[in-house]
What does this fold into?
Amino acid sequence: MNRLKYILLLLSVVVGISACSNQQKILTQQEKDSNAFIKKIAEGGEYTPYRFLNEDYLIYYKEIKNAPEENRDVRPLQNSKVRVIIAMENAQTRQVLLSGSEQVITIFGVDQNARSMTRGLQIALQCMEVGDEWEVIVPWQLGYGSYTYLRDIPAYTNLKYHLTLLEIIQ
It folds into this structure.
């Protein structure tokens, strides 16, 4: 009887390990697909690459509308509070995650709009001038990373933002 329990226990451990390794393969494929998508964006020439300070990863942006002449070089700082229109989608599937809502956010800080705040968004906002309208591709490493976020943003999701920087409040 003890031998049967031992065999069943050993069998359940093997099945458990095998299930974990299958899950790992799925996540690895998601990561590969996301990285291939970013590589395609980088090589496509439609977006301008931007590396912020010593970040390991780039964001890619396309200017839709330039800031008016009087706002040239008027950019928010890391502790600025800004009024911005943000739309966010999964860059690969185009699933809308946040539809063009006007928000007031602090670039580095915790507030009620933390769902849309990623490192990539922080970088993009600091590069924009008041009045700019940009489309920004954020790789998963500067987005929500390798973890599922709030059930609707899977691990390894590259994000596409449509941003309009309306004003710097402080």
